[in-house]
Structures are given as structure tokens and as C-alpha cells.
Amino acid sequence: MRQKTIKIARTVGLMLGMLVLVGWFFSLKLTPNVGITEGSPLPEGTTQPQLIIVNDDALMLAPNGALYRWGGKSTTTKTPGAIKPDLRFRKTAMHHGAILAVHEDDTIWGWGNNSFLIPNNPDIAPQEARRLFPDTGFIDISMSNRHALALKEDGTIWSWGKNENGQMGTGRNPDSNEPSPASSEIPLQIGSETDWTSIHASSTLSYGIKQDGRILRWGKRPVVGSGPGTSPRWTPIQTLIEQRQFALIQHLSQQTGKRSRQLLDLTKVRKR
Known about the structure:
The chain is α+β, with helices and mostly antiparallel strands. The protein has one domain (43-264): Regulator of chromosome condensation 1/beta-lactamase-inhibitor protein II (Methylamine Dehydrogenase, Chain H, 7 Propeller), CATH 2.130.10.30. It contains 3 helices and 20 strands. It has helices at 2-27, 243-256, 258-264; strands spanning 28-31, 35-38, 50-54, 57-61, 67-71, 81-83, 89-95, 98-103, 108-111, 130-131, 138-143, 147-152, 157-162, 172-173, 178-179, 183-189, 196-202, 205-210, 215-219, 233-238. Strands 3-4-5-6 form a 4-stranded antiparallel sheet.
């Protein structure tokens, strides 16, 4: 009887401890320019929030357009803290310490160590946020470790970075059957279409959604497990992935890192 009573007491104690922990967790909120405080609401605003996790590095875009970051090797904090607190953004992307973001004035900003995507400036430290290009009108951004995609309000897609597998989508050199250009430090428009609505960059692949719901891809699908790779596609082609599956892929890729990026490379999903 005594042992049973002890067991029940331990169980009740464990449950109470878990309730306290859960309550504490949900009471932790973010305040602008500071980080976590207890019992404060999220900063208000009209920006659609984003949460991006790459390995153990987390980045959040709050409703007021502020960015918060925690975890990872590039920061020492284990709780969300505001970064670049004087700046406000509409969209953001992150990959292994490098961050790209669409500023509230619809320009592209970047910081971190990735010379493929963030052109070197000898007068500015890599961790200092800066406007990367003179172009305006951007509304969305996506990046891998080697290339980036940006969507403009006019429905055009732009890309820059490395292009060894055609992931920029800018075509090929007809004489050498190589991608053209091999790389670019400035955004180049993909085709002339103005009906793109969504983008996603993944390792050596890129995806885009058209207004009519069609999903196109370009680049090269690498070998995943024992499966075969694919030949490079220099310009967008239609895929069999349905739009709801694309949304799931975007979510998985943002949440988990390398394993999700491998899932994203499984491009041929058959309709049932």
C-alpha cells in the first residue's frame, strides 16, 4: 500500500511539474528590441510571422517586422533576442549563418558569411546588415547555401549566386551546353513571365508556383539515398508536385534543415 501511495505521489508530482513547465513555456513572449520577457504579448503588427530553423539555429520574423534569433553556433543566446532592432522587414530567409531579408521598403538586405549570395564589401563587416542591390519592388525571398530567389510585386522572379546546375534558371550557353551565366552577384530575371506567386530555393534546385497553380522547377535533383539524380534543367519546367504538397515541402524545409532539404529534392511526386 505504501509503495502504491509513493508511486501515485510521484506521478502526481511529475504531472504538476510538467504543467508548471508548460505554463512557463507559454508565458514566455517577445518584446521588441529586447528579447524574451515573462507575460508580455508579441509585438503587434501586420507582417506575416515566419519561423525558420536550420539545424539548431532559429530565426523568427515577428508581426512588427522585427527579427529574433537564438541557438546555433553563430549566436550564444539560448533565448530569442532581437537582432538589427532598428530595422523592419517583410520576409526573411536563413542558411547556415547567412540571412537575407526583404526590407519594409521592398529592397533586399543581407548579412552573414556567404560570399555567393552576399557580395563582399571591404568597408562593411560581414555581420553588418546592408542593402545589397539598388532594385526595389521585392515581396518574397528564398535561399539555399549557393543561390537565392526573389519574387517581385510585378510577378517576376529574380535569382543570383552559383549556377553550376542551372538552379538560377537563367538558361544555358548553346555552344557549351553549360549554364549561363556560371554565377552572378546581382539578381537576374528568370524568363519574362509576370505570373509567379511563390518561390523556393533548395540546394541545387529551385521551385516556383504560377497564378494558375502550376508548379515549375529548374536546376538538378541530386542523388538521394539510392535514387537517381536528374539532368540539369536550365529553365523552368512543369513538375508533378501538387500545390498542397509544395506548401508542405516549404514548411518542412524551414523547420528542420538538411534532412528536410533532402526531402525537398524528391521532386517527382505522382498524383493518386
